[in-house]
Design goal:
This protein has about 150 residues and is mostly helical. Helices cover about 65% and strands about 0% of the residues.
Length: about 150
């Protein structure tokens, strides 16, 4: 009786990593996760535990918060960090499970494009938000909230 012949192990998949890119991606996930926990729980505490709680959240509440550059930057940081964190996590999953190079390449492109689109659209909302829009004559539009009349 003879033992079966041993085959050489398969070569690992070429992932085109540059230097320690995977290590830095792994480190980014851990650091950004901790930062996101602090950002999100502070955001939730301020929105839900102070004042009237969830009953206070309406258009005027958001307009009041975004009148402050601190909250604009806070929400922008959460947006960008959450999108990059999520995209990096999905990139790691794609690298682990997408075996065909073309499919892996297309999925990563789709991830990156969707991340950029969502960050751009979210940034436009945060930075161009105007609670009291006016028409060409400088009069408040008819649909604006009542608090805008007090601001003018």
């Amino acid at each position: 009786m003879t033992a079966p012949e041993l085959k050489a192990p398969k070569k690992p998949m070429n992932r085109r990593t540059v230097g320690n890119a995977e290590k830095w991606g792994w480190m980014f996930q851990r650091v950004s996760g901790v930062i996101l926990i602090v950002l999100i729980f502070t955001h939730l505490f301020v929105n839900l535990m102070t004042g009237d709680g969830v009953n206070q959240i309406d258009f005027a509440f958001v307009a009041g918060k975004w009148a402050s550059p601190l909250w604009q930057w806070w929400d922008f940081t959460m947006l960008v960090l959450a999108m990059v964190h999520g995209t990096n996590g999905m990139r790691m999953i794609v690298n682990d499970y997408a075996r065909r190079p073309f499919l892996r390449h297309m999925l990563q492109w789709a991830l990156n494009i969707s991340m950029v689109v969502i960050i751009v659209l979210g940034s436009l909302v945060i930075w161009t938000f105007d609670a009291c829009p006016v028409d060409a004559a400088g009069e408040l539009l008819p649909e604006v909230p009542t608090f805008c009349e007090d601001v003018r």
